[in-house]
Design a protein that fits this description.
Blueprint: H1 2-17, E1 36-42, E2 48-56, E3 60-63, E4 73-79, H2 84-88, E5 94-101, E6 107-114, E7 130-136, E8 142-150, E9 153-162
Protein name: DUF4871 domain-containing protein
Organism: Paenibacillus rhizosphaerae
């Protein structure tokens, strides 16, 4: 009987040691930069032009461009829902983006704004996405996870690389 208990105890202890833990900061495990992709938008002449974004296609994305630390980076956020009807209901809502640094775990409010229609575009039904224009502010270079909230409800997360301003180290 002792042998059975000893065997059971040994198996129990060894199974507890076999779990591999992933590195987490702020409870987030996947620190791969979000992918870039292209959507079509109407150009000045009304014809479609390619528009580069970085993030989660059909969820949350930002303009695919350089983001600098300690700088007001003008940004155009894009949001999608599962259906065009749900996306249309996102208009004129409060947007907040919380940034989390991979290096330090520091969390900051990186962006605040409202969802809207850009450049006086007419509302085209069904609405494919809504946008929010404003300034993205992150205090340090490195990888940052951006968690977007619309009216307090989680609306997607992406990971971006933030760079120093030229001449800053």
């Amino acid at each position: 009987m002792r042998l059975i208990w000893a065997t059971f105890l040994l198996v129990f202890l060894l199974s507890g040691c076999s779990e591999v833990k992933k590195e987490t900061v702020g409870g987030y495990e996947d620190w791969q930069q979000s992918p870039s992709f292209t959507i079509s938008k109407s150009g000045p002449d009304g014809n479609p032009v390619p528009y580069g974004l970085k993030g989660s296609k059909d969820k949350f994305a930002i303009v695919d461009g350089l983001v600098q630390a300690n700088s007001s980076n003008k940004q155009l956020l894009h949001f999608w829902c599962d259906t065009p009807e749900e996306t249309g209901r996102l208009l004129d809502k409060d947007v907040k983006v919380i940034g989390t640094s991979r290096e330090t775990g520091e969390q900051v409010t990186a962006f605040e704004g409202k969802t809207q229609i850009q450049n006086d575009d007419p509302v085209k039904e069904p609405r494919e996405y809504v946008e929010s224009v404003g300034y993205l502010n992150l205090p340090a270079k490195g990888l940052w996870k951006l968690d977007a909230y619309i009216d307090g409800k989680a609306s997607g997360s992406i990971v971006i690389e933030v760079h120093d301003k030229p001449g800053q180290q």
